Amino acid sequence: MRPKRPQPPPTQDAPTDADKRAMRRALKLARDAAAIGETPVGAVVYETATGRALAEASNRREHDADPCAHAELMAIRAAAEAVGDWRLHHCTVVVTLEPCPMCAGAIVNARVGRLVYGADDPKAGAVESLYEICTDPRLNHRVSVVRGLMAKPSAELLRAFFRERRAKVKPPKPRAGRAPVKPDQA
Ligand SMILES: [Zn+2]
């Protein structure tokens, strides 16, 4: 008998109509988050077989003063509560931004069947960018991942949010004369 080998990570499948519907809703939730001063990230959890939405959430870190109040983490908890089971094999998590290590860990711990995300997060992403938590063969559960769905509007929402926030925090100085010379340009 051959020794049992860890399964290879599932290959990326194509986004379904239900994924697209859920992502449009997640983008709307992300926009609503931005409108109340939260980093614009939205998430929806739906039942993969039927497309039935089980839970949704947007980022609420500032309002709840909760470092764990990320959109997908809250949506996962609400979905588990809705189905009365912490195991979400039969569910798809759709989120506008690549999950961080905490959320990717929660996705694995909840045994989520599928993950669909929008923009990559090169600074904190733990599905592809910095770590590959959802497909790591050393862990006891692997998630089928679809990345990059509606990545552009998701990334643009985040860029606009941070642009606006920077402008609020630091009003641009009036330009007088030439720009200061940086040491490396002198
Ligand atoms: Zn997170």
Q: How would you describe what is shown here?
A:
This protein has 186 residues and is of the alpha/beta class. It has helices spanning 17-35, 61-64, 71-83, 101-109, 151-169, and strands at 42-47, 53-58, 91-97, 114-119, 144-147. The chain starts with 16 loop residues before the first helix and ends in a 17-residue tail after the last helix. The mean pLDDT is 90. The structure holds zinc ion. Zinc ion binds next to helix 4. Zinc ion binds at residues 70, 73, 99-100, 102-103.
Keywords:
5 strands, five-stranded mixed β-sheet, alpha/beta, binds zinc ion, 186 residues, globular
Short description:
The chain is of the alpha/beta class and 186 residues long. The protein has helices at residues 17-35, 61-64, 71-83, 101-109, 151-169; strands at 42-47, 53-58, 91-97, 114-119, 144-147. Helix 1 packs parallel to helix 5 (151-169).
Which ranges are low-confidence, i.e. pLDDT below 50, for 5 or more consecutive residues? none
**Total DSSP helices:** 5
The largest sheet, given as strand count, sense and whether it forms a barrel, is: 5 strands, mixed
Which range best describes the helical content: under 10%, 10-25%, 25-40%, 40-55%, 55-70% or over 70%? 25-40%
What's the structural blueprint in terms of helices and strands?
Blueprint: H1 17-35, E1 42-47, E2 53-58, H2 61-64, H3 71-83, E3 91-97, H4 101-109, E4 114-119, E5 144-147, H5 151-169
Parallel strand pairs: 3-4, 4-5
Antiparallel strand pairs: 1-2, 1-3
Helix pairs in contact: 1-5
The structure holds zinc ion.
Zinc ion is lined by residues 70, 73, 99-100, 102-103.
